[in-house]
Design brief:
Number of domains: 3
CATH superfamily of the largest domain: P-loop containing nucleotide triphosphate hydrolases
Strand order of the largest sheet: 2-3-1-4-5-6
Oligomer: single chain
Structural class: alpha/beta
CATH topology of the largest domain: Rossmann fold
Largest sheet: 6 strands, mixed
Length: 299
């Protein structure tokens, strides 16, 4: 019986046949199932696709378990208020960007695949300490890129550093296949002589164009707010406490000292979240960017 499938189904069949590895094949088979005919005559076809998907999932799970028992050559311990990774293909300018944004001094070269292991630096944005990790360049081979992508998966933000629209497509496809749904910024590099319509915006590591904009976008994407604390009769502390957007006085108190919540009496607030300067509040008060807080403890 003819299955009367849509042309998209046959196009997807070709993509499945050309899949480079098991993960990509699984991803494409699931897409194939979504566009397969659903009428009675196609029941056997759909059952066959489901069987292939189940078999591939089982094989991949077994391989994943075996890999876990082996030692990873990459290991990055999270530090600071958030972790941001720079991800991209070779010669995209990740090392130059890391050098501009942080205190790190990575080896910068025109030779491909110069970065062999993750390079780490710290970026200070108005008191927020952001750990920046430059990951080794992707090789466009999901099996070889597994460990690199594992670090990206656990980060708080991915900056995809690209120099062509084709790189944008390839990188997004890799993240989709690996089911990595971390917030991201598509950053076109080499703004001094390129323009990419698929990038969120462009920067130049040569002229430092839009570097300040990038820092602002990082803070926005990470949903961070900076809160200053003060003692009665004194000026606010220079170093802010960095919290996630939506944090309360309770979270601030816990961050300052583990005993502050137990001994908490009340707080006085100045800033956007206060109805009036010096408003008295409790632990449930929700803070906003730039607030200044005095915490009072029971004696």
């Amino acid at each position: 019986m003819p299955i009367n499938a849509h042309p998209e189904f046959y196009e997807m069949q070709v993509e499945v046949a050309q899949a480079k590895n098991k993960e990509e094949k699984l991803f494409l088979l699931e897409k194939l199932l979504s566009v397969a005919p659903s009428h009675k005559g196609a029941e056997r076809l759909r059952a066959d696709i489901k069987l292939k998907i189940a078999k591939l999932k089982k094989e991949l799970e077994k391989e994943k378990t075996q890999k876990k028992s082996g030692k990873s050559k990459f290991s990055v311990k999270k530090t600071g208020d958030s972790q941001v990774v720079l991800l991209g293909f070779t010669n995209s300018g990740k090392s130059s960007l890391l050098s501009i944004l942080t205190n790190a001094k990575p080896k910068i070269s025109e030779w491909p695949f110069t970065t062999k292991v993750p390079e780490i630096g710290t970026m200070d944005i108005d008191g927020a300490k952001i750990q920046m990790v430059e990951l080794p360049s992707l090789k466009d081979n999901i099996d070889e890129d597994t460990e690199i992508l594992a670090i990206a998966r656990t980060s708080d933000l991915i900056i995809c550093v690209v120099t062509t629209n084709e790189e944008v497509n390839r990188l997004l496809k890799i993240l989709e296949i690996k089911r990595i749904a971390i917030p991201k910024i598509i950053l076109g590099n080499k703004e001094d002589y390129l323009f990419l319509n698929k990038a969120d915006f462009m920067v130049s590591t040569l002229t430092k164009t839009n570097i300040d904009r990038l820092k602002n976008e990082i803070i926005k994407k990470l949903n961070l707010i900076k809160i200053k604390t003060k003692e009665p009769g004194k000026l606010p502390e220079n170093k802010p406490v960095v919290l996630k957007k939506g944090a309360t006085i309770k979270k601030l108190a816990e961050t300052i000292h583990k005993d502050f919540v137990k001994k908490f009496s009340h707080a006085l607030i100045w800033g956007k979240s206060a109805k009036f300067p010096g408003q008295r509040t409790g632990l449930d008060h929700k803070l906003e960017e730039g607030d200044i807080v005095e915490i009072y403890l029971r004696k």
